[in-house]
Amino acid sequence: MIRVACVGITVMDRIYYVEGLPTEGGKYVAKRYTEVGGGPAATAAVAAAKLGAQVDFIGRVGDDDTGNSLLAELESLGVDTRYTRRYAGAKSSQSAIMVDAKGERIIVNYPSPDLLPDAGWLSEIDFSQWDVVLADVRWHEGAKLAFTLARRAGVMTVLDGDITPQDISELVALSDHAAFSEPGLARLTGINDTARALQQAQMLTNGHVYVTRGGEGCDWITNGALRHQPGFSVEVVDTTGAGDVFHGALAFSLACGQATDEAVRFSSGVAALKCTRPGGRAGIPDCAQTHAFLSRVA
Question: 31 with 56: CB under 8 angstroms?
Fold first, then answer.
């Protein structure tokens, strides 16, 4: 069984489904509302577990009701939270999300200041027990130390390079595979042209670099050449968490030994299927469902 560790944040997503995303101040009415766990690394962990991996989530929560719910949900979805640190008297992180009728969304994240950024306690964990370590960029110190320890143990590292105020260059350098969102790649390189930005990012690492482009698919570089996987056409209900799911599937498929182009196609299929159901996790398919879908669109 493939063993995966996902390092980063977990948040409570409070999702409001509206007819159209607001463009000005005012009062709006939601058609539907739900609460579900979110966060890049945590949702990637759920995706990897759904695909059949043995998964640990390594992160931080408060000892409040929200933290209790977040951990209980992860455990119920097959993700082990034994290495997650709980801070006494702390509030957990949360996000307010609005999703329109086409599945597009606006996310307002509140990263709890009660969750200390220190990651020194990760040194007590044996990282050699995993086949791959994935990290998001929202807990910079955690990602840096986790990747350092993983590489020291000869374990593959996969970075979810989303947008963040911090310079993530050192995280990219520690990555065997760095998969960026378009905003994350632009923030890192200062270049808005995706192809040029990806080439610039490649100069920061000896590993592989990718950029996810929503419905347009995924670009990556192999042997200096730009490659492209088109997006799959599905009936989109909610794009929340699609990138996180892609990263979890990518880490899983690479750890399984898939070639890069096969791993990207597989991960794109997993992310596309996720978008057919509301919430960031409900639509995540298993391997059989993904292979069946890919066989139909081949």
Answer: no
Q: d(Cα 249, Cα 235) in Å, to the nearest integer?
A: 20
What are the b/e assignments for 85-107, b being 16+ CB within 10 Å?
bbbeebbbbbbebbbeeebebee
Question: The pTM is what?
Answer: 0.93
Q: Tell me phi and psi for residue 244, to 5 degrees.
A: -65, -40
Distances (CA, A) of 205 to 45, 114, 173, 202: 24, 33, 5, 6
Quote the tokens at residue 297: 């669109």
DSSP code string of 101-164:
TTS-EEEEEE--TTS----GGGGGS-GGG-SEEEEESSSHHHHHHHHHHHHHTT-EEEEEE---
CB 164 within 8 A of CB 187: yes
Question: What value does the mean pLDDT take over residues 225-242?
Answer: 91
What is the average pLDDT across 193-218?
95
Tell me the three state secondary structure of residue 278. coil
Q: Which residues pair with 14 in a beta bridge?
A: 35, 96
Among 97, 83, 90, 85, smallest CA distance to 37 is for 97
Q: Tell me how far apart the alpha carbons of residues 266 and 251 are, in angstroms, rounded to a whole number.
A: 11
DSSP 214: G
pLDDT at 116: 95
Beta bridge partners of 4: 55, 132
Q: Within a 10 A sphere around the Cβ of 249, how many other Cβ atoms?
A: 29
Return the closest-CA partner of residue 90 out of 121, 64, 65: 64
pLDDT at 73 exceeding the cut of 90: yes
42: tokens are 């945590």
* C-alpha span between 69 and 36 (Å, rounded): 9
